[in-house]
Amino acid sequence: MAYILLGADNKVLQEGIQQKLQAEKKEPCETKLYDFDNVSYYVVVDKDDRSRMTVSLQCPNWNVLKSQGSEDWIRKKLGDYVKTVTDDGVNFEIPLGDEKSAERAESVGNAFSKLRVYALGGPLYQYCKALEEKKALKDVFEVKFRPDTYMWICPGGDRLTVVFSLEFPISADRIIVNQVLTGFVEVRKQREFSNTPVIAYSRIPPLELKNAKIPTYDKTAFLGYFSILLLPEHIKEGKLETAVENVIGFRAYLTYHIKCAKAFFPFSNACSSQNNVASVEQSPI
């Protein structure tokens, strides 16, 4: 099975913003866009006021994420456009009427394209910055990343471990993901990948979670814990943001490959032949 590395950018949001800024005639619009990990955007150009575009971010558990680095990272990247920050998300305002709109279209579109990473990855960015600056952090950060996934960020001196706990209620999904995660572990053992982050996959909680409160899982759906160990060498020389993008994109990566595998392999037929018919319900993005 071949794997594809997903980019961190949302091309639909990026191109939509860019086109609105470049358009000679500003047309009204009202669009809701959905991203991975239950993140969504609401983009509006009001028919009565076409001089500005508003973009609203809706993010699960934003009330937890915003105070742990996500609001700060969004303001660092998009501060010129932030209008309000609420307990549910962030509202942005992008001017459309000035003469430089078309000139800055590409840069603004690119900046907004990674909004999901800024929103979900703020805490990890904060912890990675502390690791880069050799600041001691002791507290473990925990968040329900999405309804079927918890994430912990565990500092440990000169290292940082990110742990995901994973649930997949659909049996075919568990088969695919187990194959993907096992492949990750096997590839990491190869010499040419010895400098990449150390990873582990287990049914039992890793030692980093010994003092953490472990949630109650659906025993049928629960697949296990996937850990990613980051060292200073993984975030130095401008690699910090890329590391955050890749780790935060991990759960979306699994979802994407579940969809791809189901498109190419007849899992329903295979399961039916074993009297274990998989549900045709599609797992959520």
How does this structure look, described?
The protein has helices spanning 11-22, 62-65, 70-78, 105-113, 115-132, 171-188, 240-248, 250-264, 267-273, and strands spanning 29-34, 40-46, 49-58, 82-85, 89-95, 141-146, 149-155, 160-167, 198-202, 222-230. It is α+β, with helices and mostly antiparallel strands and 285 residues long. It has two domains: 11-113, Yope Regulator, Chain: A (2-Layer Sandwich); 123-271, Yope Regulator, Chain: A. Strands 1-2-3-5-4 form a five-stranded antiparallel β-sheet, with helices on one face. α1 (11-22) packs antiparallel against α4 (105-113), α3 packs across α5 and α6 (171-188) crosses α8. The longest helix is centred in the middle third of the chain and has 18 residues, at 115-132. The chain is globular and about 55 Å long. The model is unreliable at 267-284 (pLDDT under 50).
Structural key phrases:
single chain; 285 residues; alpha+beta; Yope Regulator, Chain: A; five-stranded antiparallel sheet; 9 helices; globular; disordered C terminus
How far apart the termini lie comes to 21 Å
Number of H/I helices: 9
Major β-sheet annotation: 5 strands, antiparallel
Globally, the shape reads globular
CATH-level-2 architecture of the largest domain = 2-Layer Sandwich
Number of strands: 10
Pick out the low-confidence regions: 267-284
Overall number of domains: 2
Q: What fraction of residues sit in β-strands?
A: 15-25%
Mean pLDDT: 88
Neighbour order of strands in the largest sheet: 1-2-3-5-4
At the first level of CATH, the class of the largest domain is Alpha Beta
- The helix-and-strand class reads alpha+beta
